[in-house]
Every structure is written in C-alpha cells, then in structure tokens.
Amino acid sequence: MPESHSPKVFLNFPVADLDRSAAFYAAIGFRPEPNFTDETAAALSFGDRLFVMLLTHDKWKTFTTKDIPDANRSAQVMVALSLPDRVAVDAMVEAADAHGGTADVNPAQEHDFMYGRDFADPDGHIWEPHWLDESACGDAK
C-alpha cells in the first residue's frame, strides 16, 4: 500500500434503536454523516479516519447470515480509541454514562505511561478510550 494512503476504518454495529444509538454517539463526540444515513443506518465519524456505521438489525442481516449476539451478555471485540490526554478519556466516559451508555464495565487501566477506561454503548458494544504516552513506546509508535 502506498505510504500516501492512510486507510479509513469503518466499524459496523447492529443496534436495536437507530435513533437512540445515533444520538448517543453524537453526544460522546462523533459527527453525524447525513450522506450515509437513512432509516436503516446511521453513519458518524470521529476525526477524519474513523467511522461508525449503526445498522438496524434488519439491515445488518443483509450483510451476514450469522446471528446477532446480545453484546450486553457477551463480548466479541473492544474498540480502543486513543485520545490526547486523561481529561479527554474521562470526559468521553462520563458523556457515555450520561447519555445511555454504561461507564467502566471493566476495571480502569492506570500505568505511568497509559491511562484507560471503558464504556458500553446502549447496545453493549465496548469502547476503550485511552491516553498513551507515546514516548514510552520507543520505535514501536
């Protein structure tokens, strides 16, 4: 892949209530993308490279024949999101908790070089906002 191409990431989530989920993600800092939103799906972006596609269960089923698991009962993935500092981490988790999500569904991670918390969205999908001191990564960053 050419170095000039920086890939975009699209995360697709099945949601029980599209309006509720779209409002939740907007409340925690995602920007609605109306060109990719209709009565079956809502697109929201976080920065220029990360997009969340919220899909009604009926729409989700057009992409896969697999069952939609209850994310409140099982975890398949936890999405880690790098933020600029601890204050931003706490602000996102607190906004999630105030707008229908659940804060701190797992223990917080606090180390000298890293701080992270997590939350579940209204459908149980887990996000892990974190701050990382990149100087601690050396050449791995």
Structural features, described:
Keywords: Lyase. The chain has 141 residues and is an alpha+beta fold. It has helices spanning 18-27, 57-60, 86-98, and strands at 9-15, 31-32, 41-46, 50-56, 78-82, 102-103, 109-110, 114-116, 119-120, 126-132. It contains three helices and ten strands. Strands 5, 6, 7, 8, 9 and 10 form a six-stranded mixed sheet that branches. It has a four-stranded mixed sheet with strand order 1-4-3-2. A hairpin with an 8-residue loop joins β2 and β3. The two termini are 19 Å apart.
Which tags fit this structure?
141 residues; alpha+beta; 2,3-Dihydroxybiphenyl 1,2-Dioxygenase, domain 1; six-stranded mixed beta sheet; globular
How would you summarize what this structure contains?
By secondary structure, the protein is of the alpha+beta class. It contains three helices and ten strands, in the order βαβββαβαβββββ. The chain is globular and about 45 Å long.
Write the layout of secondary structure elements.
Elements: E1 9-15, H1 18-27, E2 31-32, E3 41-46, E4 50-56, H2 57-60, E5 78-82, H3 86-98, E6 102-103, E7 109-110, E8 114-116, E9 119-120, E10 126-132
Parallel strand pairs: 1-4, 5-10
Antiparallel strand pairs: 2-3, 3-4, 6-9, 7-8, 8-10, 9-10
What is the CATH superfamily classification of the largest domain?
2,3-Dihydroxybiphenyl 1,2-Dioxygenase, domain 1
State the CATH topology of the largest domain.
2,3-Dihydroxybiphenyl 1,2-Dioxygenase, domain 1
Oligomer: single chain
Question: What is the makeup of the main sheet?
Answer: 6 strands, mixed
**Tell me, what's the shape?**
globular
Quote the beta fraction. 25-35%
- How far apart the termini lie comes to 19 Å
- How many E strands? 10
Number of helices: 3
Mean pLDDT: 92
Give the second-level CATH assignment, the architecture of the largest domain.
Roll
Helicity, in percent? 10-25%
Order of helices and strands: EHEEEHEHEEEEE
**Unreliable residue stretches:** none
Q: Quick one: CATH class of the largest domain? A: Alpha Beta
Q: Rg to the nearest angstrom? A: 16 Å
Number of domains: 2
Structural class: alpha+beta
